[in-house]
Every structure is written in C-alpha cells, then in structure tokens.
Amino acid sequence: MNGFDLNRAYSVARKEVMHILRDPFTLVLALGLPVMLVTFFGYAIDFEVRDIKLAVSDLDQGPAARRLKEIFTSSGYFIPVEAGSGTVGMLDSGKADAALFIEPGFSRTVMGGGPVTAQFIMDGSDNSKAAAVSGYLAGIQRSAAFKLGGAATPEGLAVETRFLYNAELNSQWFTIPGLAAIIIGLLAILLTALTVAREWENGSMELLLSTPVRPIEIIAGKLAPYALLVLGGVFFVYLSSRFVFGVPFAGSRPLFLAFCLLYVVSALSQGLFISVATRQQQVAMQFAMIIGLLPSLLLSGFIFPVESMPPFFNYFTMILPPRWFMEAVRGIFLKGAGLRELALPFLALLALSAALLALALKKFKTDMEP
Amino acid sequence: MKTGPALEVKNLSIKFGDFTAVDDVSFSVARGEIFGFLGANGAGKTTAIRTLCGLLVPSSGSALVGGLDFSDGGKGIKKIVGYMSQKFTLYNDLTVGENLDFAAGLRKMEPRYAAERRRELFELIGFDRPLSTMVASLPGGVKQELALASAILHDPEVVFLDEPTSGVAPASRARFWNLIRKLTEMGKTVIVTTHYMDEAEQCGRIALMSAGRLIALGSPEELKRGAFPGPMAELDFKGTEDVEFIRSLEKAPGLLELFPHGMRWHAAFRDQAALSAALTGLPPSVSSRPVEPSLEDVFIRIIEGAER
Predict the structure, then answer these.
(1) Which residue segment(s) compose the domain that B114 sits in?
(2) Within 10 Å of residue A133's Cβ, how many Cβ atoms?
(3) Number of Cβ pairs closer than 8 Å across A and B?
(4) Residue B201 shares a structural domain with residue B276
C-alpha cells in the first residue's frame, strides 16, 4: 500500500501530455525559447570587441609611425578613422573609440635605437570594451617592439600567451553551451509553476487528492513530461553547439546528462514550490520569471564571471544551482572535465537539488488545505 | 451488500489552527439515503464533506465512512467514496473520453471494466455524443452530469456532491436530481450540499449547519413540524402594508413568529385556535390564506433561534 504506484503516476503524466499538446502557449514557449536564445546569443550578441574606431594623430609622419599604424590596423581589432584637428574631440563626440598620438621625432628615435613612447587613449565609458582592448594592446605592444626594434629586441623577453581550451577566445564557445542553464532554469521553473498552479486555481487538485492517488504520484506524473520537454531543449542546445557553432565536446556525455538531470530536478522543485506557495497562475508566472531567469542569467557566471563578483555575491551564488551547473557545462564541453574535476559542482548540485525537492514536497504535502 | 450505516459521525471537530470549521458534530446516515447539508457559506458544510471524503483528517471525534475509519489517513475511505467538488467538474481542454480515462487511471480500474462502467453511466445520464467530444463544447448541465459519471465511475458506496447544481439551468437541475434519486435506488448513499430550497425538499434528511455546528437534523417534514408545530397563515396587504395592524398582530396570544415573506407576511401560531382568534376581524385591505411553512421559513427560524 505504501509506496509509489507507477500506473497512477502514468495516468497523471498522460493527462499532462494532452494538456501540453492542446496548449499552444506551452508548446511555443518550450520549443521556441531554445531556438530564440541560441539565435540571440549565437548571432546577435557577440562579447568580442572588434572594429574599434581608431583616430591617429601622427605628428611624426615618419616610416616608423606608418609601421605602427599598420600594426594596429592589421591586428583586425582596429579600423582607422580620418583624424582631423582635435583628436580628443572625436572621442567626445563618439566618432572614434580610441586615439593614438605619435609625437614628432618618433621615427628618428626608433632608428637611433632609443626608447620611444606613443600615447594611446581609450574611451573608458564602456568598461567591458576598454577591458577587452587593454588585453589586445599588450599583444600589439609586443608586436610593435619586435617589428620596429627589429633584432634589437632581446628574444628572451618575448612573452607568449596561449589560451587553453578555447585558443581563439571564441565567445560563442563559451556562451552557447551555457544556454542549457538558462533554458532549463527558465522553462522548467516556469512551466512547472504554471501547470501545478493551474490545478489549484481551477479546483481540480482537490479532486485529484480525493482519489487514492498519492501526492508524490501527482507530482511525478505532472512533472515528468516537462522534464522531457526541457531536456529536449537542452538536446537542441547541444546539437546547435556542436554542429552550428562547432563547439568541441571534450567530456563525457553521460556525465553531462547526469548534471542536466540534477539541475532539472532542482528547477522543477523550485517551480513546484512557487506554485504551491502562490496557487495562482498569474502570480506563479511572475515569481517563476524572476527566480528562473535572474540567477541563471546574472549570477551563474554565464555573462559575468563568478570570480570577479564582490565576495558577498561570490558566496551567495554557491546556493544557486545555476552557478554549479554552468561550471560543469563549460568544464565538460571545453575542458573535458570528468567527475573528479567536477566533484564539487556535482556534490553541490546534488545537495541543492535534494534540499529543494524535499522542501517542495514538504510544502506540497502540508499545504493541501486551500 | 454491506450492512451498517453509510456514515457514522460522533463528536467530529475539524480545526485549522485556532479556527474551528466543524464543531462537535454527530449524525448518522443510512445506506441509500439522500442526506442534505445546508447552511450559509462558511457554515462548515464543505469542510465536513471534505473530511468525510478522506481529504482532511478529523481534529477530534470519530467518523466512519462505509464502516472505515481514518487510521490509515483516509486512504481506505478514498477508495469507496466518490466526490464531486463545487469548483471543478472536468478538464475543459480534454475530451470526454480522456477525462473518463483519467478518472479510471487514478482509480486503477481495469480498462475493460472502466469501459463497461462508462457505457452503463452514459446510459444512466443519457449521454450519446462521441467520446472525442471536447468537454469545453458541452452545455453546463451535460458537463455536470458527466462530472457525476466521472466521480462514480469506480462504483463508490458513498457519493459526495458539493453544490453539484450551482450555476446550472433549472431544467438541468431537475434532471440532475432525477439522477441522484436513481443512484439511491441503486443502493448508493448520496451526501449533497445545496443552496436551493427546492432541492433541499428532495433530501431524505437535512442537516442544517451554522458556524460549524449542527443546529438541526431531520426530514424536511420533521424540521417543519419542529419549527412550526401549529398552522401558518400568509397575509397579503395588497401592496399597502398596514403597520398598525402588524403591530397589533405581534402582540396576539399564541403567535410564534411573524415575518415578511417577499411581498407578503407569514404568521405562525401555536395552534388553530390561536390563529382563528388573531385573524378574525381582519381589515378589508388584508387577505389571509393558510400556507405550509417553506423550508426557508424553517431555516430562518432555526438559525435565529440558534443565534438567540
């Protein structure tokens, strides 16, 4: 008598599938969101900074100054713009993002083998752009020192940087797999919150509970179809990562699936909790949007690295499943990390999912009285 | 066929925190009876019904449903009762067949048995549309009948109907009550709540609840005789109420109760002699005729008496 009846849970699941099939909103959301997000982050949003408009004030007009300008433009990051009078003014008006000042006598000093300086000014109002450019500058400086100074540059001083796992620093490699976290977070929480809240709202939950069906069977039956739907979204992300954006998949697929399942459980539990607490679709939807979207988008490391957050938020993200899932997804995709390397995220996600599930079930069971 | 009462409720109380929704209620319902719960919203009817369906566990007192108690948390009771709630009938976005299949699945009915029961019940309620009909496209009365079929698909001994006819057209209400009577003819016990007095008249016995307490219990006849042992007259002032006359009538010996009834007044007396004495020499503008007290009159009197 005690225990879980698969047949009853299956009846609930089958009914849920029919609800889904007849509800255009759920279907469009579940199928459309992954496609939309992948398109957005794959094509529209590019975290790389290119085509920086560079105004050059060349007061030297010598060969070394021309070489220096070439080095900047051939890097691919900068495009020269005509510098009239008032180079700084071009920064103010936004006609240029950066300016390069070459003093008179630049070429002569270079020829003489002495130390030279050229001034580079960057519009710092967009700090993410400025940060990216300062990274490029280091490379350009090295290249300039070598090309202008020629053999005079001591070989031993040349610094070589290699980026592991994502040698080209391709930002899509970084973002697209991470979309799995956003899609699971948002879809699973939102759809679960809505479907359970709907049963409360129209009074049918009471009818279900008046039959021998157990609460756990209702939950399992109602949530299983959404778990599959959401995993379908993740599969889509996987396929587009691999075959559209050419992201390497270095790790183990079963491990990836295991992480997905854990994270799905945590998200479904949150959705369940929201629906029991709110009992109204409208309110549940608002909560789900906030709880589903904000942590996975902003506090998971998806866009802003967790390490560079202030200490409070750095620690705060530890209780958020998306942070751990994001770490695992990138580790598995790009680094080929295994369970040993991902032990901490795995255990953290396991603990969080178990805690959230227990909390949601407890709330559901004790709260059956409307 | 089991013996013993369908319901045996003793000193039942149900509390939510400090709030007592059902307060020390005792009654018993025989098998095959139509038992009505009446009372204002919040009087405790729905809570009592939900408890007897196994949805809530009594805070104190005891309740046996079909001979089963709550020692298993209401699981056994859930198997032998059918419940139709006032809020929800059937899933509108599913077909008739899908709804009934779902009900059968929750009760773990054999598919063949479920199909057989479905045919029987369709015949009972006179439903002859295809199974693939979307519930949303059905008229309210038909939906209500199908909801009943869904609630009793598993052939329960006791059927609980919480305001089954609210929001349904009068003709459909009459049809629905025919169904209720047919069920009791088949040996089912039906517990029903309603706000309609004409429906209350059709119950075998009525339990009247107010503020969680059971304040009257009996057949409609018994309740009427209990509240108004003597005769009742209806006074028609033909539009112009004679305040003077009403004042004097209030003081008449043997008057039990004088109260407005729509455009007219009802006067209840202890016996026929008191009625005759009070109503001789009526002003010409007032006409009088003997009436049977309505259940509404009865309830007003009982509830006012309970509040006094």
Answers:
(1) 7-218
(2) 22
(3) 73
(4) no
Residues B213 and B272 in one domain: no
B112 with B180, same domain: the answer is yes
CB-CB under 8 Å, B98 with A7 = no
Summary mean pLDDT of chain B: 90
Query: Do residues B213 and B261 share a domain?
Result: no
Nearest-angstrom CA–CA distance, B227 and B215: 12
Residues B266 and B212 in one domain: no
Domains of chain A: 6-45+170-366 (no CATH), 52-157 (3.40.1710.10)
| pLDDT greater than 80 at residue B246 | yes
Q: Is residue B304 part of a domain?
A: no
In total, how many domains does chain B have? 2
CATH number of the domain within which B275 lies: 3.30.70
C-beta of residue A139 within 8 angstroms of C-beta of residue A71: no
Residue A172, CB-side half-sphere exposure with 13 Å CA sphere: 21
- Using a CB-CB cut-off of 8 Å, the residues of chain A touching B78 are 210-212
- Which pLDDT does position A102 carry in this prediction? 85
- Taking CB atoms and an 8 Å limit, are A15 and B55 in contact across chains? no
For residues B248 and B129, the model is more confident at B129
Contact yes or no for A15 and B79 at CB 8 A: no
| B236 and B176 share one domain | no
The H or E element that residue B234 is part of is strand B232-236
Question: Is A5 in CB contact (< 8 Å) with chain B?
Answer: yes
Residue contact A207–B81, C-beta within 8 A: no
| B141, B60: one domain | yes
What per-residue confidence (pLDDT) applies to A168?
57
Q: Is B55 on the interface with A (CB under 8 A)?
A: yes
C-beta neighbour count of B204 within 10 angstroms: 16
Nearest to B78 among A211, A368, A369 (CB): A211
Q: B100: closest CA among B116, B87, B85, B86?
A: B116
Mutation for testing the A interface, residue in B75, B106, B137 having most A CBs under 10 Å: B106
What is the 3 state secondary structure string of B38-79?
ECCCCCCHHHHHHHHCCCCCCCEEEEEECCECCCCCCHHHHH
Residue B190 lies in a domain: yes
Mean pLDDT computed over B285-299: 87
Mean pLDDT, 10 residues at a time, over chain A (370 residues)? Answer: 81 94 88 88 71 84 85 82 74 82 84 78 76 76 73 42 58 83 90 90 88 89 93 91 88 93 94 90 90 86 83 89 92 88 93 92 71
Chain B from 15 to 34: CB within 8 A of any A CB: 16
